[in-house]
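Dear colleague,

Thank you for sharing your sequence with our group. We've completed the structure prediction you requested, and as agreed, I am returning the results in plain text so they can be pasted directly into your records. Please verify that the sequence below matches your submission; if there's any discrepancy, let me know and we will rerun it promptly.
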Amino acid sequence: MDKREIMQAIDNAGTGGLIYGGVLMFFTFLGLMFFPALETEALDLIDVFLIFALSWGIFSRSRLCALALFVYLFANFIIVWIESGRPRGILFVLAFGYCFFQGVRGSFAYHRLLKENQREKERHGDFYSRPY
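Please find the predicted structure tokens below.
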């Protein structure tokens, strides 16, 4: 991956996380206010906060946040599947899973590129930081 692809993957994953959190927040508020049959609780807002926090971490190029959001998405899907007895929203999960996986790839590639650039500076010196 080149630098442009890396940054695009990270930005897409962060934006995907914001959209995922926004959709979850919408349905949580909708369930709390108008549709008690959705069985939402105020504690579901903790999930929304967690998703927004991890999305912010992805925008900050954190490998841990990218990996955590990817794992969280599938763990949440599996828990809902076990509780309800059927897979709900599998296309939704696959679409966001792909987006978050690209964020994991991008964040690891970003740190690999950062490390390579640091090695180059140590090996050859930083041309622009030399005094004239």
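Summary note from our side: The mean pLDDT is 89.

Kind regards,
the structure core
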